[in-house]
Amino acid sequence: MANPENIPPEPAPDCPLCPRLVDYRRENEAAHPDWFNGAVPSFGPPEGDKAVELIIVGLAPGVQGANKTGRPFTGDYAGDLLYATMLRHGFAKGTYDARPDDGLTLHRAMITNAVRCVPPQNKPTGGEATTCRPFLVSRLNSLPALKVIMCLGRISHDNTLSALGMKRSALTFGHNAVHDISLDGRPAALIDSYHCSRYNTNTGRLTEEMFDDVFVSIRERLKAI
Ligand code: URA
């Protein structure tokens, strides 16, 4: 994964790179000065980057969730299902209470987003994802024990493939599809899931059981690699 310009794994909270997202941030700051309103940093385990074996790549912060609280998926509807499932499978400890100070910690896992700033209507443009990608590349490069990348949704899948320097056609997105990949020569897996969004769970595209099945695959892969 090339990172020729030595981009850090986390953008500055007031990252200026995407004009539309900066405008939207300013609007939110004006209306809600008490919210986080910045590029949301990845959330990792207390032991640090070296302890991360699983990284979960979401799409982008929700306006009243991660953009408000400053922690990925925290306060977002999608976070209720994500954190409950991670707790059940041993990738988180404590209690999730939709607040960054709820005391929840991650275990062997990290959560990040393909785009770090909240986009209007939850829809980042392709250009914004491209602009934000060096941070994803750098983030993936920063994890020496990484074995499994979980992609939440097709956009995350596509951006992760690009971050890995792979063609988007190289791996087909599918719910609970497990793909063998190599991370700097080390065997690893990329595992897809439908995004745990309110829309997907309300329409029945994604059930709790289906989401759980993906974490079963993740645990199997982590054991096998
Ligand atoms: N919140 C996030 O942080 N990421 C998502 O993909 C959705 C909600």
Automatic annotation (TrEMBL):
| InterPro entries in UniProt | UDG_Type-4/5, UdgB-like, Uracil-DNA_glycosylase-like, Uracil-DNA_glycosylase-like_sf
UniProt keyword terms in alphabetical order: 4Fe-4S, DNA damage, DNA repair, Hydrolase, Iron, Iron-sulfur, Metal-binding
- Tell me where in this chain the Uracil-DNA glycosylase-like domain is found: 45-215
For whether the record's keyword set contains Iron-sulfur, the answer is yes
Q: Which molecular function terms from Gene Ontology are attached?
A: 4 iron, 4 sulfur cluster binding; DNA-deoxyinosine glycosylase activity; metal ion binding; uracil DNA N-glycosylase activity
* Gene Ontology annotations of biological process type: base-excision repair
| Cited Pfam families | UDG (PF03167)
Q: Which family does it belong to?
A: Belongs to the uracil-DNA glycosylase (UDG) superfamily. Type 5 (UDGb) family.
Give the protein name, as stated in the record: Type-5 uracil-DNA glycosylase
Q: Which organism is it from?
A: Aquisalinus luteolus
Q: Name the lineage.
A: Bacteria, Pseudomonadati, Pseudomonadota, Alphaproteobacteria, Parvularculales
